[in-house]
Amino acid sequence: MIESSNHAEPSREAALELRLRQQEAVAQLGQLALAGFATDALFERAVSLVAERLDVEYAKLLESLPSGDFLLRAGVGWREGSIGSTIVPGGPGSQAGYTLLHSEPVIVSDLTAEPRFTGPPLLLEHRVRSGVSVIVQGPGRPYGVLGAHTSRRRVFTHHDIHFVQAVANLLASTIATRKAEQESARLLEETRRSLRLRDEFLSVASHELRTPLTALLLQLQSLARMLMKQDASEALVDKADAAIRHAGRLNRLVEGLVDVSRLAEGRLTLVIEPVDLAEVAEEVVGQFRDEVEQTPIALEIESRPVGSWDRIRVEQVVTNLLSNAIKYGARQPVDVRIRSADHKAVLTVRDRGIGIDAKDLKRIFGRFERAVSVRSYGGLGLGLHAARRIVRAHGGRIWAQSAPGEGATFVVELPLRAHLGPNASGISL
Questions:
Q1: Could you give the CA distance from residue 142 to residue 71 in angstroms, rounded to a whole number?
Q2: What is the tens place of the pLDDT at every residue in 330-380?
Q3: Could you identify which of 10, 98, 146, 160 might form a hypothetical disulfide with 156, taking C-beta atoms 3.0 to 4.6 angstroms apart as the criterion?
């Protein structure tokens, strides 16, 4: 600590009373900071308490500027109009600059006889004679200087320094916390903007691709029928069927993008009608007849729950789960189970493949998330996300149970009568 003269200690009782009042002031500021008190208001309250508890006419908080000078950010006792406009010179010639340069508190007993620096115009104009200054640290570099001054000759004690420094430290902590909060808010807004732009791009791209893909699929199907009528070779028909399957998969990917854009925009309309879940599962399993040759699918129907749901959307959920099970199932059997429980329909799809790490069980339901990072499995990471949104829109729930190397089990519960969730509207037929 740098000081210019010796100083006398106050009486023990007076010193104790003063310390208690100063501790109370720091605690009060801490409560205001935690309560979210506005930064400028907190600064004003801080300098006010410093002036009051040290019994001085002037207190100030100087903000360090890029130029090396200071801005009078908050203060007590200074002439009207000074706050927010007065520039205090930096460098070793001023008390604040000297404090910052030497990185420690500075005590001045008599500015008129001070050999280390001359007083800046702000102090000289107010006939300041004695004062104390401490650094207010900031994130990365000092924020500025907190000071207390009086026109009377005053001997500031080490206890006075500790009090002012405690206030400065509290302000420094608050400044760092709020700067971090502002940066987090900025990054969050940037992320949201990026997501909005991405969703807009996906929406436009998927709708632009949808029409030509649908036309291509119809033309391929028409071509396949013509080949069959003309008794074309089996190899040629097989090629046409393969082209139709690939176009169909591509069409489903585009439909998935369309669905995700709708879900992101919060518009999902459910056409509610009586749906037999077992019947839907049977149809979906039938659509995977080509895959069944390599991946056996066992469909177990314990009961045939009929609920009020959107048939197309429920079929989409079953399709996405079964497709995932086949993709990650390592060509091992896949079990699909349908049952009823507590006025709900329960769909379970279990594979015996690579499994999912416990930490990823919730993540995989996010947009563009995959159960594993291996790109050889393909896919856009949209199926489980769409399935969760659809299930939730019906008022149901979906979850996964798994462990690495032990396969994965996905469970869907749907209330027999859909309770429409957020961002879903229903049309009853």
A1: 14
A2: 788 999 999 999 889 999 999 998 888 888 888 888 876 665 544 444 555
A3: 160
